[in-house]
């Protein structure tokens, strides 16, 4: 009998009932809710006369539709968006769930607010009608996205009907080179395994390079587990995690914290645990990367050139041809020669304080290139406040960035923050799909520091060119 | 939920790999607070030209495929966003079955909640079914959930696997929530026990 993985341990602690065919009823500790994927679920409860079973475990915040301009207290201009946010206001009130309305300084992207407020804790099950729920895996919580029907199921029963996934280990050994960040790790993994490489698995990220990351960096890594197809990404909790959690508004206090800590310390994969798939990448081999195409697997080192479709196999050949046409790129073109129009820094992938610090570090004393549009959208009102306190906001403003209010913004462009057809964007978000940031918009994904460097030069840029003397690796 | 038992219909070929849920239903249509009426927006950016007219090159706009009820797709169909608006849009268009070598996890789950059947097949089988789909409206494919078989217009049959619980729910049109609410006692006990062992949660 082999040992257990971290995923096995969390799973086992949440099984309410197991059927003969292996289907389980899994208990859900935290249910996060936003305005886009929940109205039909609340409506379903009303139509059937059902209640929210555990409103105290349910946390709602509007993020996808909310304007991020400073005048948003005047209301939402787009009628459909306004109705959707108003529906969440009403549903949160009617069903009595925890709520952070647009007017609350704690409002922000649901995946940033949850950890910030201490709702997300190690060993929990966390779900949300949003694929980037994977973010919370950074705490050693089993966290994944669900559809609206499942949102209704969790609201009504606080459980989900689930089959267990397989275990996949992604180990990043050694240390990262200067200029290489958590975003480069997570994109490089997807570049190697493909967008379907994690399908059917829960990934645990481990290794020295992962251990060395802050909680912010770990959240960036786990956030994009879904882009690799995995149900969830996990990182075993350690002192870094406990330190982050301690003192947060909804984290346990005093003796409760000590009791929790004792259990959290058992949450790691046993040495003899069974892995169905293992991927190992040397930290030293990871370069600052960007995406060139319309799938998050289209990842290359910034020093590379746009690939030829013929260099791929199978269905990817046609997909790459289509991607180059959509992106307006030629095979063989140097990535650093690609000119950009817009820079977007923000999202649940890279909208935390550390991300803003990294971008501001590059921008200090520099200007956004003439004619470009650049915006920073902090992940929450509290991130925004902290960045103002640390003087980062002034760095962005002095450089020529727009300093916005919190929300999902141009990551998916449901609010007015959108790309025009053909507009090319250096983005710190998570998806470069066709039309994702606006119909015809062209997205290159990268780290906050790389996006900041691109804002200064006006083209995709190797951030290492912006670093003073090379630091010791 | 509507039952799914057996279907004979036109299959549309969509060989592109990694068709994501942003392609299936772009974000501007997620602002609805209803489940219905999304069919007209399915594949919006591929299906309509900038002036709003239909793109004649898009498969579901071609006369042979306007009534399609099956899609045979490239690898990793439904990747990306968890939006259930994707299966809602497909179902509203009339698509009941999607066949591919692989599906993204959340999209796959979402299909079953809406009376749709996603079928995973090996590459060789998908290749044959794709060819069959390319024949157009005269070639009708049959999908039989009870016997777990897809049959081409030429009578070539391919078996597929499906989780028994999901199959049962589709065949009977069962509502998951109703089923789970019958287990309220077990959920109560779990909560009572968790309140002891993990009181901080």
From TrEMBL, chain A:
InterPro entries, sorted: 3-IsopropMal_deHydase_lsu, Acnase/IPM_dHydase_lsu_aba_1/3, Acoase/IPM_deHydtase_lsu_aba, Aconitase_4Fe-4S_BS, Aconitase_4Fe-4S_dom, IPM_dehydratase_rel_enz, IPMI_cat
Family: Belongs to the aconitase/IPM isomerase family. LeuC type 1 subfamily.
Cofactor note: Binds 1 [4Fe-4S] cluster per subunit.
Gene label: leuC
Catalysis performed (reactions): (2R,3S)-3-isopropylmalate = (2S)-2-isopropylmalate
E.C. designation(s): 4.2.1.33
Binding site for [4Fe-4S] cluster: 348, 408, 411
Swiss-Prot/TrEMBL keywords: 4Fe-4S, Amino-acid biosynthesis, Branched-chain amino acid biosynthesis, Iron, Iron-sulfur, Leucine biosynthesis, Lyase, Metal-binding
Start and end residues of each Aconitase/3-isopropylmalate dehydratase large subunit alpha/beta/alpha domain: 8-458
Molecular function, one GO term: 3-isopropylmalate dehydratase activity
Protein name from the UniProt record: 3-isopropylmalate dehydratase large subunit
Assembly information from the UniProt record: Heterodimer of LeuC and LeuD.
Organism: Salipiger mangrovisoli
Described function: Catalyzes the isomerization between 2-isopropylmalate and 3-isopropylmalate, via the formation of 2-isopropylmaleate.
Pathway as given in its UniProt record: Amino-acid biosynthesis; L-leucine biosynthesis; L-leucine from 3-methyl-2-oxobutanoate: step 2/4
Cofactor: [4Fe-4S] cluster
Enzyme class label: lyase
Automatic annotation (TrEMBL), chain B:
InterPro entries according to UniProt: 3-IsopropMal_deHydase_ssu, Aconitase/3IPM_dehydase_swvl, AconitaseA/IPMdHydase_ssu_swvl, IPMI_Swivel, LeuD
Stretches assigned to the Aconitase A/isopropylmalate dehydratase small subunit swivel domain: 1-123
SUPFAM superfamilies in UniProt: LeuD/IlvD-like
Entry EC no(s): 4.2.1.33
Keyword check for Lyase: yes
Catalytic activity: (2R,3S)-3-isopropylmalate = (2S)-2-isopropylmalate
Record pathway: Amino-acid biosynthesis; L-leucine biosynthesis; L-leucine from 3-methyl-2-oxobutanoate: step 2/4
GO molecular function terms listed in the Swiss-Prot or TrEMBL record: 3-isopropylmalate dehydratase activity
Alphabetized UniProt keyword annotations: Amino-acid biosynthesis, Branched-chain amino acid biosynthesis, Leucine biosynthesis, Lyase
Similarity-based family: Belongs to the LeuD family. LeuD type 1 subfamily.
Function: Catalyzes the isomerization between 2-isopropylmalate and 3-isopropylmalate, via the formation of 2-isopropylmaleate.
Assembly with partners or alone: Heterodimer of LeuC and LeuD.
Protein name listed in UniProt: 3-isopropylmalate dehydratase small subunit
């Amino acid at each position: 009998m082999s040992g257990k993985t971290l995923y096995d341990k969390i799973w086992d602690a949440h099984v309410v009932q197991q059927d003969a065919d292996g289907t389980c009823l899994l208990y859900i500790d935290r249910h996060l809710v936003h305005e886009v994927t929940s109205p039909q679920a609340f409506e379903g409860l009303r139509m059937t006369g059902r209640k929210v079973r555990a409103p105290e475990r349910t946390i709602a915040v509007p993020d996808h539709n909310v304007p991020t301009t400073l005048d948003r207290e005047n209301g939402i201009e787009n009628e459909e968006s306004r109705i959707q946010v108003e529906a969440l206001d009403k549903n949160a009130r009617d069903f009595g769930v925890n709520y952070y309305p647009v007017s609350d300084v704690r409002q922000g992207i649901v995946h940033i607010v949850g950890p910030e407020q201490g709702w997300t804790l190690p060993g929990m099950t966390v779900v949300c009608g949003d694929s980037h729920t994977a973010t919370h895996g950074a705490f050693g919580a089993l966290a994944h996205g669900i559809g609206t029907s499942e949102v209704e199921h969790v609201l009504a029963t606080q459980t989900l009907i689930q089959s267990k996934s397989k275990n996949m280990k992604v180990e990043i050994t050694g240390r990262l080179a200067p200029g290489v960040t958590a975003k480069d790790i997570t994109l490089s993994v997807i570049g190697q395994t493909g967008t379907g490489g994690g399908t059917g698995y829960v990934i645990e990220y481990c290794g020295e390079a992962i251990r060395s990351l802050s909680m912010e960096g770990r959240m960036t890594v786990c956030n994009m587990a879904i882009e690799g197809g995995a149900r969830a990404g996990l990182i075993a909790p350690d002192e870094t995690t406990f330190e982050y959690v301690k003192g947060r508004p909804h984290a346990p206090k005093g003796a409760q914290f000590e009791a929790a800590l004792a259990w959290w310390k058992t949450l790691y994969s046993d040495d003899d645990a069974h892995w169905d798939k293992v991927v190992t990448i040397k930290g030293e081999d990871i370069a600052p990367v960007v995406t060139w195409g319309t799938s998050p697997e289209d990842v290359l080192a910034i020093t590379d050139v746009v690939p030829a479709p013929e260099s791929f196999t199978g269905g990817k050949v046609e997909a790459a041809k289509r991607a180059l046409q959509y992106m307006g790129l030629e095979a063989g073109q140097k990535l650093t020669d690609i000119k950009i129009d817009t820079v977007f820094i923000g999202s649940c992938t890279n909208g935390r304080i550390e991300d803003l610090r990294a971008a501001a570090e590059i921008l200090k004393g520099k200007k956004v290139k003439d004619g470009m549009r650049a915006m920073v959208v902090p992940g929450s009102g509290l991130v925004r406040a902290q960045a103002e306190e640390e003087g980062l906001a002034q760095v962005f403003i002095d450089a020529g960035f727009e300093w916005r209010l919190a929300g999902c913004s141009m990551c998916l462009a449901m609010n007015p923050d959108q790309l025009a057809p053909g507009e090319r964007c250096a983005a710190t978000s998570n998806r470069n799909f066709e039309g994702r940031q606006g119909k015809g918009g062209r997205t290159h994904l990268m780290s906050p520091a790389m996006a900041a460097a691109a804002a200064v030069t006006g083209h995709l840029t190797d951030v290492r060119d912006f670093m003073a003397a090379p630091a010791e690796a | 939920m509507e039952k799914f038992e057996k279907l004979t219909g036109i299959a549309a070929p969509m060989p592109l790999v990694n068709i994501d849920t942003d392609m299936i239903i772009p974000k501007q249509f997620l602002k609805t607070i209803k489940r219905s009426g999304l069919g007209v927006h399915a594949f919006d950016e591929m299906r309509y030209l900038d002036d709003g007219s239909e793109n004649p090159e898009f498969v579901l706009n071609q006369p042979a495929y306007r009534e399609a009820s099956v899609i045979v797709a490239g690898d990793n169909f439904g990747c990306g966003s968890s939006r259930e608006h994707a299966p809602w849009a497909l179902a509203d268009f009339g698509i009941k079955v999607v066949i591919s070598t692989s599906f993204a996890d959340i999209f796959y789950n979402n299909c079953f909640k809406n009376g749709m059947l996603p079928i995973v097949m090996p590459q060789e089988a998908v290749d044959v079914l794709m060819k069959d789909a390319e024949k157009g409206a005269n070639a009708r494919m049959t999908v039989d959930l009870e016997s777990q078989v897809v049959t081409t217009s030429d009578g070539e049959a391919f078996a597929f696997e499906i989780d028994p619980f999901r199959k049962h729910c589709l065949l009977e049109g069962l509502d998951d929530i109703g089923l789970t609410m019958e287990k309220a006692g077990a959920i109560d006990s779990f909560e009572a026990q968790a309140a002891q062992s993990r009181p901080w949660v």
